[in-house]
Each structure stands twice: as structure tokens, then as C-alpha cells.
Amino acid sequence: MDALAFLAYMGWPAIICLVVGLGLVIFEMFTPGFAAPGLIGITLLILSVILAAEDLFQALVMTLIILVILMGCFLLALRSATKGILSRSPLVQRRESRTEDGYISVQDMSYFVGHVGVAQTILRPAGVADFAGVKLDVVTEGEFIDAGTKIQVTKVEGPRIVVCRASEQTA
Questions:
Q1: Burial of 92 (0-12, 13-18, 19+ CB in 10 A)
Q2: Which residue has better confidence, 169 or 118?
Q3: Among 163, 161, 125, 160, which residue's Cα sits nearest to residue 144?
Q4: Which of 4, 33, 34, 127 could disulfide-pair with 123, CB 3.0 to 4.6 Å?
Q5: Averaged pLDDT for residues 150-166
Q6: pTM value?
Q7: Largest CA distance in the chain
Q8: What pLDDT is attached to residue 80?
């Protein structure tokens, strides 16, 4: 049975479900949304297979054909998002967010390196410390430090503030 004879054999309800289902799933690939068109499209595609297939073999063949069509459209959508018309839309960020441009992902706490403060809680190894009225979550290199002990910031790694006991010269 060739493709046109099979389409004629499918019947109008199955053909309409197939075309509308493919259209909705492809529409969902190219537009951001809440997945409603995609879910309705998948439901219509399943319904078209149920309406058209006489046996399991026909259902599998139809499902495979639908998957190949959708895979091709998905690859086309990916290409469009990277090099095509979607890459020029406002939905795709074209520039890199750099620190030099004023973008920061984590608040820069490197200012506190070298500052001396007081452990507000037991640091085992994480806890809270006070640096001249500024309370910060800090972590030690593994040692336990009692509350009330003078500590010093040794390094800052992103949001992680590393401290150690303050030496007698800095205290």
C-alpha cells in the first residue's frame, strides 16, 4: 500500500488529528510556552494512530514515521536557535554577561579578606561571624572554633568566606 492510498484509507478524522497534532507539536518546538500546544498535539497524534492503524505493525510504522518527522523538525528548531531566525529573536541572549559590563553572579565579598571579626556561633566548620556589625556566614578550613573567638578572613571563593583563628598580631 503506497502513502497516498494509506492516507485515503486513514479517513478524515485521523488525517485531521495527524496534521493538527504535528502542527501543534512543531509550534511548541519553535515557541516558548506552557506546553499546552505540545500536550494537545501529542494527544492528537496518539489519537490519529489509534484511528488509522488496523494492527500493531501499522501502529508502529505510523509512530516511527511521526517520530522521524518530529526529530527532523526538532533538529531544524535547534539549528534555527543557534544560527537561524530564532537566534536573532529577543528570546536568545547574544551577549555574554561579564563582570566588566557590571554583571555579577555572586556578591563580591573579597573586600573582607584580612578583616578580623568575632565568631557569633561555634564554627564547626561553618557558622556565623560578626565583622564590625556585618554578620556573615563563614567556614573554616576544617578546625572547630568556639563562639566569641577572634577570627580573620583568609580567602573568599565565590559565596564561600574562609576564616581561621586570628593571630595575636592581628587581634
A1: exposed
A2: 118
A3: 125
A4: 127
A5: 91
A6: 0.49
A7: 92
A8: 77
Q: Is 115 helix (H, G, I), strand (E, B) or coil?
A: coil
Give the Å distances, CA to CA, from 74 to 48, 69, 77, 88: 21, 9, 5, 18
In one-letter notation, the amino acid at residue 57 is F
Integer Cα distance of 44 and 32 in angstroms: 20
Please list the residues that pair with 152 across neighbouring strands. Answer: 116, 164
What's the alpha-carbon Rg for the chain, to the nearest Å? 31
**Selection from 12, 72, 2, 3 nearest residue 48 by Cα:** 12
Q: Partners of 118 in the beta sheet?
A: 130, 150
d(Cα 60, Cα 146) in Å, to the nearest integer? Answer: 68
Separation of CA 76 from chain center? 21
**Ramachandran assignment for 102, one of left (phi > 0), alpha (psi -120 to 50 degrees), beta (any other):** left
> Residue type at 10?
M
Predicted local distance difference test score (pLDDT) of residue 148? 93
Query: Backbone phi, then psi, for 120, in 5-degree steps?
Result: -85, -30
Section 49-63 average pLDDT:
89
Dihedral sign, Cα of residue 83, residue 86, residue 90, residue 93: negative
